[in-house]
Write a structure and sequence with these properties.
With 508 residues, the chain is mainly α. The chain has one domain: Hydantoin permease (Orthogonal Bundle). 65% of the residues lie in helices and 1% in strands. A two-stranded antiparallel sheet has the order 1-2. A hairpin with a 2-residue loop joins strand 1 and strand 2. The radius of gyration is 23 Å and the shape is globular. This is NCS1 family nucleobase:cation symporter-1. It comes from Actinocrinis puniceicyclus. Keywords: Membrane, Transmembrane, Transmembrane helix.
């Protein structure tokens, strides 16, 4: 069974103890070439499906609320996605070349044990996102049920601050997502293939209805910016741009989890280029135009698509709208927030935790984080949380890019990624340069975390470390740049394994 490339193929027998070793299981081993079936369309559909979600819909609203006009907001979103696409494509290459998931890829730089540091940083963020999206999806199910069952459902007695009927809706949505991840990656691929065009068509239909009812899209796109384009704009622009980058900073690390199934480098790369920045910007534009029309129809701009769906009186239309929102939420939540931690938790104890069990753990942790509280303050959620974890994950991305492209020149030894005592064992399974680069990069990026004057937040106004406060506005960029440079300075080529046995050829 061939695992790597079309030249110098590595057979399962050649990998020796990998399949039965303590650092491997079937999900963490390289994907055989014959099982790499994802095409350009699959990756474009994956990104279209992940971009069409409730949080994306409201991104422009959060920036407009900060004082930008729609044009400024859309430009910020587009630029953020173009920037994060760069490390995403750089890290994706290894997944297709070697057929390995993110936590195994990270072993080459952090060490076989140290990779758990990068994996868990990524996994915990994903669990938080999973819980939040699941809570939002549960609210959507509850709204649909309220339209069908009437006041007794909507006005149910409270439980933990919410109608008790909301909790079974939340549980149902959780079960649906767990079922998809339990069935495997091929089920996810098929789901994304039809979910992506379905969601897009429905939202375009809603846009057409809004334009018809409003006799145009109103003047929202041309409204002046409260901040202008001068000195008041830039202090808001930079942290907002970092937040937009951080929105997909998680996927910039773990895209090998998906590109390991690609037929070719060209297919996964072009699929992502065509799918991510274009869809995020276009979907945000649709949100702006729909909200502009609702300001004319209802006298107030409605940024919450769930609230907009509830405005319709026809039960079928309401159900179709909210089912679309649920499909969109499942699409992003399973792909972005369950697949990665399922591999990450599996990497902790490969012989005990399978991908399925890892996904279940991610689901449980997501609930344990109490997402109903995480979303209680949108300002803290979007700006404090996004900017903070974006800076931390930026440092991890810098280490990965520096190690794979500059130190190792894309050459890895697949067998040693699973072998105790091999070239990726470093110091008792840990790479001290990678750990130091990550910690120092993260401190530089988020050490100055602060709460803007006049707003609530978890950080002191002068920053956690006042000297680093100016850097926090550029958190992801600082983390990425610092992680990359520090790792390059600390990681000697000999320790990195450049002078290694011949590397396998990439899959073309």
């Amino acid at each position: 069974m061939a695992f790597l490339g079309t030249e110098g193929q590595v057979e399962l027998a050649d990998l020796g103890e990998l399949a039965d070793g303590p650092y491997a299981n079937p999900e963490l081993l390289p994907v055989p070439v014959a099982q790499r079936t994802w095409s350009l369309y699959n990756y474009a559909a994956l990104w279209i499906g992940m971009s069409h979600n409730l949080v994306t819909y409201t991104l422009a609203a959060s920036l407009i609320a900060a004082g930008m006009n729609p044009v400024q907001a859309l430009l910020t979103i587009a630029l953020g996605n173009l920037i994060v696409l760069v490390p995403m494509l750089l890290n994706s290459h290894a997944g297709t070349k070697y057929g390995i998931p993110f936590p195994v890829f990270a072993r080459a730089f952090y060490g076989i044990r140290g990779a758990n540091l990068a994996a868990l940083l990524r996994a915990l963020v994903a669990c938080g996102w999973f819980g939040i999206q699941t809570w939002i999806g549960g609210e959507g199910i509850s709204v649909v049920a309220g339209k069908l069952f009437g006041a007794w459902w909507t006005n149910a007695s409270p439980l933990l601050g919410h109608p008790w009927t909301l909790w079974p809706a939340f549980a149902l949505f959780w079960v649906i997502q767990m079922a998809i991840i339990w069935r495997g990656m091929d089920t996810l691929r098929r789901f994304e293939n039809w979910a992506a065009p379905f969601v897009l068509v429905v939202f375009l239909a809603v846009l057409g209805w809004v334009i018809y009812r409003a006799h145009g899209v109103g003047d929202l796109l041309s409204q002046p910016a409260a901040l202008g384009w001068g000195g008041r704009f830039w202090p808001v622009f930079w942290p907002s741009l970092m937040a937009m980058i951080a929105f997909w900073a998680t996927l910039s690390l773990n895209m090998p989890d998906f590109t390991r199934f690609s037929r070719s480098q060209r297919g996964q790369a072009w699929g992502q280029v065509l799918g991510l920045p274009t869809t995020m910007t276009f979907f945000s534009l649709i949100a702006v135009m729909i909200s502009s029309g609702t300001a004319i129809i209802y006298g107030k701009a409605i940024w919450d698509p769930t609230a907009l769906a509830a405005k319709f009186s026809n039960p079928f239309v309401v159900t179709l709208g909210l089912v679309t929102l649920l499909v969109a939420t499942v699409s992003v939540n399973v792909a972005a927030n369950v697949v990665s931690p399922s591999y990450d938790f599996s990497n902790l104890a490969p012989r005990v935790i399978s991908r399925r069990v890892g996904g279940l753990i991610a689901g449980v942790v997501g609930v344990a984080l109490m997402p109903w509280k995480l979303v209680s303050d949108p300002h803290v959620y979007v700006f404090a949380w996004l900017d903070f974890y974006g800076g931390v994950l930026g440092a991890v991305a810098g280490v990965l890019v520096a190690g794979y492209w500059f130190v190792r020149r894309t050459r890895l030894d697949p067998a040693d990624l699973y072998r105790r005592g091999g070239r990726y064992w470093f110091t008792a399974g840990w790479s001290l340069p990678a750990v130091a680069a990550t910690l120092l990069g993260a401190v530089l990026a988020v050490g100055g975390a602060n709460t803007a004057p006049g707003t609530a937040g978890p950080f002191p106004a002068n920053g956690l470390i006042p000297l680093l406060k100016p850097l926090y506005s550029y958190s992801w960029a600082v983390g990425f740049g610092a992680g990359l440079v520090i790792y390059l300075l600390l990681a000697a080529p000999r320790r990195a394994g450049v002078a290694a046995r011949p590397a396998v050829a990439p899959q073309q």
